[in-house]
Specification:
single chain, alpha+beta, Arc Repressor Mutant, subunit A, D-Maltodextrin-Binding Protein, domain 2, 3 domains, five-stranded mixed beta sheet, three-stranded antiparallel beta sheet, 9 helices, 10 strands, 20% strand, flat, DNA-binding, LysR_subst-bd, DNA binding
Length: 279
């Protein structure tokens, strides 16, 4: 199989429409159809079921789509990192979930800028679980992840620090004045259901609370009395006046790590990681 064939197949498999896939690839439809048919003959399997009205993936096609996405992401990452290595002044992309690790991030960037020959660091602010995908597909070189919420599967990482968690409540709520609370007390508030974050596959767990993707959206809902949440202590600093953060005595600790692809050979990334582990 060639990379070009995988790009063709991925486009058709994602669009489930030959015409739309051809437009996306900026090519005519007949050669695209022939390329997919040739790929099926080469593999000896049917990848797509076609009717006059629809295109659907077979089980074999679903497997190839997953593999194709990984391969194409790896190729794109290799292209970007190769060009990056040739630059006279290297650049690094650091992925961080928006609204988290603010204090650490400021210290890290200040300390790294003071290093001789420091690269330019471009911050990529993400929503929940996006950092891992950005590292795997080569759009980011390094990321800050928070365990156990994020996953380091397929990545190398170093632990930076571990912290407790806090409940974020409307400042007027009767629990807001407490010195500490327990998980059961927060999760049992009928008027303030726990907000729901997406899982790694993008789906949301069942529950009455609102679906959220970022802290800005979440804090607005809490201020309006629509939800509550238990989050890492560092994410609950510098809150708006109408919110309160209360330590949760029995919430599991959260560990922040710096992570990177194991195949990375970027000197600038290694320097940033070294600085982070010294903080």
């Amino acid at each position: 199989m060639e990379i070009r064939e995988l790009r063709y197949f991925a486009a058709v498999a994602e669009e489930l429409h030959f015409g739309k896939a051809a437009q996306r690839l900026e090519m005519a439809q007949p050669p695209l159809s022939r390329a997919i048919a040739r790929l099926e003959r080469q593999l000896g399997v049917t990848l797509l079921e076609r009717t006059s009205r629809s295109v659907t993936l077979t089980e074999a096609g679903a497997v190839l789509l997953s593999e194709a996405r990984s391969i194409l992401s790896a190729v794109a990452a290799a292209e970007r990192r190769t060009r990056q290595a040739a630059q006279s002044r290297p650049r690094l992309v650091l992925a961080v979930k928006s609204g988290t690790a603010g204090g650490l991030l400021a210290k890290l960037l200040d300390a790294y800028r003071a290093e001789p020959g420091a690269a330019t660091v471009d911050l990529l602010l993400c929503e929940a679980h996006q950092q891992q995908e950005l590292l795997h597909n080569g759009q980011a070189d390094v990321a800050l992840l928070h365990l156990p919420f994020d996953s380091t599967a397929g990545l190398d990482s170093e632990i930076l620090y571990t912290e407790g968690q806090v409940a974020i409540l409307p400042a007027s709520h009767h629990l807001a004045g407490r010195s500490q609370v327990r998980v059961a007390e927060v999760s049992a508030l009928p008027e303030l259901p726990m907000a729901r974050w997406p899982d790694h596959d993008g789906s949301y767990p069942a529950g009455p609370g609102p679906e959220v993707k970022n802290l800005t959206q979440l804090f607005q809902l809490i201020a309006l009395g629509q939800a509550t949440v238990i989050i890492p202590e560092s994410a609950g600093t510098d809150l708006r006046r109408d919110l309160a953060a209360v330590p949760v005595l029995d919430a599991p600790p959260v560990t922040t790590v710096i992570a990177w692809p194991p195949q990375s050979r970027l000197r600038a990334a290694a320097d940033l990681i070294r600085v982070a582990t010294r903080l």
